[in-house]
Structure formats: C-alpha cells, structure tokens
Amino acid sequence: MLDSKLTNLRATLHSFGSSLIAYSGGVDSVFLAFVANEVLPGRSVAVIADSPSLPRRELSEAQDIAIRFNFPVRVVKTSEFSNPAYTANDSNRCYFCKHELFEELGPLARELGLSVIAYGENASDIGDFRPGAKAAGEFHIRAPLKEVGLTKTEIRSLSARFGLPTADKPQMACLSSRVPQGEVVTEQKLRMIEAGENLLRDLGFFDVRVRHHELNGTGISPPATTPPHLNNLAVSPSPPALARIEVGVAELPRLLDSAGAARIVEALKRIGYAHVTLDLQGYRRGGANDPAPKPHA
User: Fold this and answer.
1) Which of 10, 238, 270, 278 has its C-alpha lying 20 to 30 A from 260's C-alpha?
2) Cα-based distances in Å from 286 to 91, 171, 290
3) 161, 184, 219: which is the final residue of a domain?
C-alpha cells in the first residue's frame, strides 16, 4: 500500500512537467521537495517564505537540507505583517499568511517557467480546520501528498527510508501560533518566543513551545534592558507578558529539576518575561488556544 502511494505520488509529480514547491523545512515539505526533485530533475524548485514568523534556526536548517540533498531552493520575503487582518490574530490568521505566500509564488513560478505550484498538505489534515487550504484552493495550488492519500505517519516512514533528517522531526508551526487568538501578533513578541524556544532546544528539549500571554493591567514591568548576550536575538523591552512553557510529557521531569528550572526562569526573565510557568499537560497542538475551564457550581 505504501509503495503504491509512493508510485502514485511520483506519477502525479511527473504529470506536472515542472513544479514550484512551497518549502518550510518541515516533515511534509522536505519529503515533497525531495521526491519532486527526484522525479523532475532540473524542473523543480523549492521556495521558502521568509518572514518574522519563521525561526532563524528553521530557515538555516531548511537551507542546509536542500544543499545536502541537492535540490534547488530559493528564499522569498513575504509581507503578511503589513496586513492588519493577519496581525489581529483571529481564527483565520493562517488564511492571510498562505494568501500572501501564494500571491508571491505565482509570479515567481511564471518567471522560472514552472507550471505547477504545490505544497505539503497531507491526508492526515483532512477534516482539520485548515484556513490555509482555502487560500490554496483560491490560487489553484496542488497538494499531491493529500491527493495520493499519504498520511503524516506514512510520510515519516518514507522519509526514514530515504534518509531524510526530518523523519522524526517534531511537528512545527510558525511562531505566530504561540500567541493566543485575539492577542495581536507583533514582531517583538515573536523575537521573545524564538529566544525562549532556542534556549530550551539548546538545553536538549525536543518538543518545545513557549506560549506568549499578555499581562494586561498587572502593573508588572519587564526588565529595563536586554542583557548583552541576548542582543543578537533582537529582543528588547515589551509590555509585560507571561511565558507558558510546553515540552513533551516525557521531558517534564527533567525540566522540573529545581536547579535547571531556576536557570530557565532566570534566562526567560532576562529575555523580557515577567512570569514564567510550566504547563503540566505537556506539549499539544494548538495549546495556545486551549478553552477556558468551565466554572463549577
């Protein structure tokens, strides 16, 4: 069954004649770009959308993978942060992001003479709330992984078969997803989030999210200055905020180690967070928007 889906994927990509792959460095887009380059050598280009919501670490890793596996990659700057509908951060934020992306990719595909634009939506995404898929439909963007029925688990399995380093990569989402819906997304918030997540990954944590919550009306002030060793992260004072850390459930005991936790709290406060908390439920998709508990009578 899996080999049959792979055969169908190759046939689908071959039928494109040429392709531009929307590429992020995640599990799905790396696999899609790799197979597209295999099927359409010299006629497929992977394109990364660079904006404040893309961590610098992710950008670098995505470029490194393209070099290692010898598929062409280009970087385009996108401007979703100039759109108030995006920064308002409602439930359609992803729609405005993808709309901006595909608006950029269309002219580029024509310039490069590439006939089909494709992205990495897969069969596991069917039934999810996917506003980005609406934008894809409006621009006639193909989703070949979904079209041939490949699930996330199957894509990981095939990625391992081909030796792709993303086979066991944690699921990633843009930095804006760390800000709860209804709280405005700003570049400053994302730099703080990125600095916090880099800290935790450098300490060896695998599944990591730093959720950024505004503290309105608390009267708490953040640090007045940024420590010198954080200057390269472009972190600066901002309105008071709380960092809610999520790591994988299996990683919770190590983070709860008193000495290690104290160091993490100190570092996050230096980044600019007024309060630092740990979510005892561990990492989960969409954790920034968990519903509020219902009050008990």
Assistant:
1) 238
2) 11, 11, 7
3) 161
